[in-house]
Amino acid sequence: MMFDVAIIGAGPVGLAAAIEAKRAGLSYVVLEKGCVVNAVFEYPTYMTFFTTAERLEIGNHPLITSTEKATRKEALAYYRLVSAREQLEIRQYSEVVAIHPAPAGFTLQVEEKNGAMGVVECRKCIVATGYFDNPNQLGIPGEEGENVSHYYTEAHPFWGLNVTVVGGGNSAADAALDLYRHGVNVTLVHRGPDLKHTIKYWVKPDLENRIKEGSIHAQLGSNVVEITPDAVIVDAPEGRKVIPTDFTFLLVGYAPDTTMLKTAGVQVDGDGRIAFDPSSFETLDLPGLYVIGSVYAGRFTGQVFIENGKVDAVKAINHVTAQLEAREAVLV
């Protein structure tokens, strides 16, 4: 069938768009290459959100939590419940691999979980793919090794081992502290001379004190040049050093993958940002294609959160609805 709108990505922002589309009476489908809110699923197991619970809410459904801020577990349960209550049309494990402009709108090439290829036709397309599934790469030998991960889950499997955490922001700080508190010998490596000032204000002093007392080893002003099965090699201010390591977490950030958008004809600037109409979030290069959430932000993803991304969704669907209504009026 020809959908009024196809939404790529079933994160909180994509789900917010789906709710708005359904309430507007549009035919829609949500295509998600992983599970519902896959990025939240990939967060550390025992993570608590920095933002308050009401800012995570979509579709005016209340998020009930045990404290002011939601845990990962509570958020996952909430977004599942909202999707079920709204009876959203979501196709999980259906990856859109290409967007092709077509006379009537767009043709999306979709790979299903069994490997079969199919197509979805839509009049309008909204891309809400976020950035968390596209980690920044260091481009060094050993980065893709079995003892390396760009995602931190929990400390238990690493008890008694040597673990190196690479990064100087919130993710690296949280991981280093959690590992230390669970009996792991942790080394934190960061290319800057100091920890990032953006680390949460209640976390940074804790980490600095653990480093000062020697509970967590810190190698600041250092660049990782290679990862081996049993070591991380860095260029430090005092020269090259070999850090004995059983497992390495490369927590150096994430960025939107705009490859598919560029192939479709959308221009992306040197910072990875996409030009769009801020009143509708329709791309300037490809009318009918919308970008919402952090996918348009390039390296400035820290400026886009669930609370403002869901506002993008409302504006985009309002514009889609108005465009389709105008089109029907002309046809009549």
Describe the structure.
This protein has 332 residues and is α/β, with parallel strands linked by helices. The chain folds into two domains: 2-134 and 254-331, FAD/NAD(P)-binding domain (3-Layer(bba) Sandwich); 148-250, FAD/NAD(P)-binding domain (3-Layer(bba) Sandwich), CATH 3.50.50. The protein has seven helices and 15 strands. Strands 1, 2, 3, 4, 5, 6 and 15 form a seven-stranded mixed β-sheet that branches. Strands 7-14-8-9-10 form a five-stranded parallel β-sheet, with helices on one face. A three-stranded antiparallel β-sheet has the order 11-12-13, with no helix packed on it. Helix 5 (204-212) links the parallel strand 9 and strand 10. The longest helix is centred in the C-terminal third of the chain and has 26 residues, at 306-331. The radius of gyration is 22 Å and the shape is elongated. The two termini are 21 Å apart.
